[in-house]
Amino acid sequence: LGGPTDLNNLTLLCERHHRLIHCGGWEVRMGGDGRPDFIPPDYLDPLRRPRRNTCHL
Questions:
Q1: CA–CA distance, 42 with 24 (Å, rounded to integer)
Q2: DSSP secondary structure of 2-52
Q3: pLDDT tens digits, residue range 37-57?
Q4: Model's pTM, two decimal places?
């Protein structure tokens, strides 16, 4: 939220998941391989371990 617009820092989300990122405490960070890592809020995972969509690897 509030970061620069950069095509190297872009991931597509459906409306529901876009809302979760902005309102649900999730974060998205680009991994070293250029794929997004989704960081859950601490109430779901106190260690905030990154997650990936393994259906599209």
A1: 11
A2: -PPP-GGG-----HHHHHHHHHSS-EEEE-TTS-EEEE--TTT-TT---B-
A3: 999 999 999 999 999 988 866
A4: 0.78
